[in-house]
Write a structure and sequence with these properties.
Order of helices and strands: EEHEHEHEHEHEHEHHEHEEEHEH
Strand content: 15-25%
Shape: elongated
Number of strands: 13
Number of helices: 11
Distance between the termini: 119 Å
Amino acid sequence: MNIGKHGRTVGGSTKKLLKIAELLCNLHFVRSSSAISKSKQSHSKKQSRKKDVGRQYPLPDVNGEVLFGIHPVQAALYAGKRQAYTAFFKTGVHNDRLDRLREQCVQQNLDILDVTGPVIDSLSGNHPHQGVCLDVSPYEHSSISIDSDIVSERLFNSNGEPQVWVLPYRVKDTMNMGAVLRSSLYFGVNKVLVPAHYSSALNPVVSKASAGALEVMDIQSLKYESTLKKCLLRWKDEGGTVVGSTSDESHEKALHLQKYTADRPTLLIIGSEAVGIDEKITGYCDVLLCVQNYQTYQESDSFCVDSLNVSVATGVLLHNIMMNRSRNC
């Protein structure tokens, strides 16, 4: 028989209650210890992640520059304009598009290297790479030869359609330049002329923004500012039309986009993000196309947008020009 406090005996039921209380205390202790342990582990993982930030991972050697993203890599391999060295695939990432791209690399006898996430992130400059990068030679494009490239008989397609060329004038933003090239390829532009100065570099960021259009399009540079003026004059002499764009419907050369018919070879000049087309350049334009503004709130005290993004404007202009293109049969 157990002797309780003050000499009282402790019965069986009381003994059971004490046992249950002891078990509950032990259970609470175990749970507390587990929570503390998990908290320490979580803190340790956070500290480990903090240490990983900025850590320099050993990177493989690169011979040229690195394209990133499925479309640019695929387009570069298809076009064959660049020397391809090594394809990098992110370890553990598989899907139909990547598997087909890997097979394309195998068929072209490229070196293939599977790398970890941090390595491929670094190779791409922390841009969205979709699990693949490609080490290629730097992008090169020729300068236009006015005498041989701008000739009337070469400014029509084989089916008699007048060609359409695009000239992004001082477009400096890489994303805008890429989007202009993407729209140009989508709408069937024959050639893009890029001024060598005051324009975006044609780098891997442009290639990604263009969805690979940079790799496959016919692109030529205007080496000097004076070349641009000679190019525009030559285009007109060979029977082509130089077309610009404006938001000023009162301009003497302004014409609503829907009224323009591309019955002759068309050289479309896309203005810069800040000021559009320089007045000296508009002087060479035969017509300035207007994209109608459909905003319904034009009161002076209301906020409105007075222009389109340069790449969006390019898409709108090209869509209408291509739809209203006539054949010279």
